[in-house]
Design brief:
The chain is mainly alpha-helical and about 110 residues long. The radius of gyration is 24 Å and the shape is elongated. The longest helix is centred in the middle third of the chain and has 14 residues. It has a domain of about 70 residues: lambda repressor-like DNA-binding domains (434 Repressor (Amino-terminal Domain), Orthogonal Bundle). Helix 4 packs across helix 5. Helix content is about 45%, strand content about 0%.
Length: about 110
């Protein structure tokens, strides 16, 4: 049986622009399993493989189904993990000063004697 390449999982997660924690929380997959699959230590099989193929093809449908399952059967799936922070990193969006190593520092006129 031919299995889909594991780098597809990493591509899907990057396409959705979410972290491993957010991916696991949204789709109800344990973070440890996700890490092992992405590293290549283990391969998903059976139901997990089918779920990953559906996530690759239509992630919105799976997110909607997981959301409905959480509402209908509380406690059945692990809770969705919110992102650690919504803040942008320090210095984001501020103009950066150009690095010019060839420019010499101005001389102190009081230091030099004529």
């Amino acid at each position: 049986m031919r299995q889909p390449p594991l780098h597809d999982l990493l591509k899907v997660r990057r396409r959705l622009r979410i972290t491993q924690r957010e991916f696991s929380g949204r789709f109800g997959i344990p973070v440890a399993s996700l890490r092992h699959w992405e590293r290549g230590n283990r391969r998903p099989n059976g139901t997990a493989l089918a779920l990953l193929i559906v996530i690759r093809d239509n992630p919105r449908a799976v997110m909607l189904a997981v959301r409905k399952a959480r509402l209908r059967f509380p406690g059945l799936l692990p809770p969705a993990v919110p992102p650690r922070t919504y803040r942008t990193p320090r210095g984001f969006g501020e103009p950066r000063l150009p690095y010019r190593p060839w420019r010499k520092k101005p001389r102190d006129p009081s230091f030099h004697t004529a």
